[in-house]
Amino acid sequence: MAAVVTVQNLRKRYRRRDPWAVDGVTFDLQPGQAFGLLGPNGAGKTSVVKMIAGLVRPDSGSITLFGTEPGNPVARKDLGFSPEDPDFPKFLRASEVLDYFASLLGLDGAERKRRIPETLAFAGLDTEHRQIRQYSKGMKQRLGIAQAILGRPKLLVLDEPTADLDPIGRRDVRALIERLKESGVAILLNSHLLSEVERVCDTVAILARGRVLKEGTMAEVVPEGSNLEDVFVQLVEANQPQRDHLPSFISDATP
User: Which residues are within 8 A (CB) of 241 and not within 5 positions of it... i.e. 6 or more apart?
Assistant: First the structure.
């Protein structure tokens, strides 16, 4: 079975004098598989996601998306992308936002009438009639996921999808991921919520400073008797400079 995404020796930096934001990252993602891309802030996760989505060009290496380049319109039509901090025109309502994205997808009137209400219901926004400017951050996150699944993607890229969701919202996203996997959709998940990743992902890659520290199936990465958070902390701390947890002026203070 052909991979949905193949990433080979990907490298990216934003200014010549800067260190590499992404440095030699390699992995592939199969249909029906959920892949977790993990790492501390600044590890390069979002840069990898943006390059796969065709929003940023790599400096070297290659990305194959559905057998072609990420920027190819053929590849883009099968890609759903929910960014970490989705932003929409503040004067629109949720149904109007989805109608706009439906027009970009080329959906006809009948498909819009069928998909938009179902998608809003999934996102818990079907009874919400306020403008986006009155939305909380969590509500915008729900709308971002809604627009990402509207086109029935073959690859769904979720950048911190549950960061601002309540427990019910996180449960709903987990259920969505499981249903999509069962239907053959590939999921690329970038998240700091390691307990969520451990519950839904088949394979993971842990990054630090743009490099992959460990990659494989969940069973290969997480030894029996341990958990993903323990493995993550051990790997990342071993690849970071040691630092005191408290400034000296605090730790040396006397009552």
Answer: none
Q: Cα–Cα–Cα angle for 202, 207, 211, nearest 5°?
A: 125
pTM of the model: 0.86
Residue 120 CA to residue 110 CA, distance in Å, equals 16
Determine the longest span between alpha carbons in the chain, in angstroms.
71
Do the bridges between strand 60-65 and strand 5-12 make them parallel or antiparallel, or are there none, so unpaired?
antiparallel
CA 103 to chain centre: 24
What does the DSSP 8-state code read for residue 92? S
Measure the CA–CA gap between 180 and 171, rounded to whole angstroms.
14
Q: Which amino acid is at 166?
A: D
DSSP 114-148: HHHHHHHHHTT-TT--SBGGG--HHHHHHHHHHHH
Q: Domains of the chain, with CATH numbers?
A: 1-78+153-218 (3.40.50.300), 86-152 (no CATH)
| Of 3-17, 189-203, 232-246, the least confident | 232-246
128: amino acid identity, one letter: E
Burial (CB count within 10 angstroms: exposed 0-12, middle 13-18, buried 19+), residue 165: buried
CB 86 within 8 A of CB 141: yes
